[in-house]
């Protein structure tokens, strides 16, 4: 309500706020996924999938495919330094058509998104938001709480 009032004050009414469940991709600042998740998806498709199709900010080494999607609400801490970043996991990452594009050749493979929609309810990986600004380093041990 406060945001709507402020927007109406700054801009000419009528102003409307809409919450979208679909069609609003890359809606949170951090995208995380495990290579095992990408590999398992590729095995379903009988093709190797480059992680760049999924544009993660953080690629996490995880033993169990799709496990990251079960962590909404949890907090990840990267390393055990005083300046370690913390990321709150918010929701599964709904995927868009960019997953169909090979990052090297730009060739399209529509079956990639179709499989994500059919087998993963349109989601692959997880979105998060910064809980504590800090550093993340290659090789950091990630703590889940």
Main β sheet profile: 6 strands, mixed
Mean pLDDT: 91
Radius of gyration of CA atoms, rounded to a whole number: 18 Å
- Strand residues, percent: 15-25%
The computed structural class is alpha+beta
Overview in brief:
By secondary structure, the protein is an alpha+beta fold. It has helices spanning 2-10, 35-45, 111-120; strands at 30-33, 58-59, 75-78, 86-94, 123-132, 142-144. Strand 1 (30-33), helix 2 and strand 2 (58-59) form a beta-alpha-beta unit.
Question: What features would you describe in this structure?
Answer:
With 145 residues, the chain is α+β, with helices and mostly antiparallel strands. The protein is built from three helices and six strands, in the order H-E-H-E-E-E-H-E-E. It has helices at 2-10, 35-45, 111-120; strands at 30-33, 58-59, 75-78, 86-94, 123-132, 142-144. A six-stranded mixed sheet has the order 2-1-5-4-3-6. The longest helix has 11 residues, at 35-45. The protein is globular, with a radius of gyration of 18 Å. It starts with a helix and ends with a strand. The model has no long low-confidence stretch (mean pLDDT 91).
Features:
145 residues; alpha+beta
What is this structure's SSE topology?
Elements: H1 2-10, E1 30-33, H2 35-45, E2 58-59, E3 75-78, E4 86-94, H3 111-120, E5 123-132, E6 142-144
Parallel strand pairs: 1-2
Antiparallel strand pairs: 1-5, 3-4, 3-6, 4-5
């Amino acid at each position: 309500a406060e945001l709507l009032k402020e927007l109406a004050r700054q801009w000419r009414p009528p102003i409307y706020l809409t919450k979208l469940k679909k069609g609003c991709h890359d809606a949170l600042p951090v995208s995380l996924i495990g290579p095992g998740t990408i590999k398992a998806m590729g095995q379903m498709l009988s093709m190797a999938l480059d992680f760049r199709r999924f544009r993660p900010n953080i690629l996490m080494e995880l033993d169990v495919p799709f496990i990251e999607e079960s962590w909404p609400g949890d907090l990840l801490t990267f390393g055990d330094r005083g300046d370690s970043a913390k990321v709150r996991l918010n929701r599964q990452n709904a995927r868009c058509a960019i997953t169909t594009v090979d990052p090297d050749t730009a060739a399209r493979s529509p079956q990639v998104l179709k499989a994500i929609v059919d087998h993963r309810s349109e989601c692959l990986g997880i979105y998060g938001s910064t809980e504590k600004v800090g550093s993340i380093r290659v090789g950091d041990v990630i703590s889940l709480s």
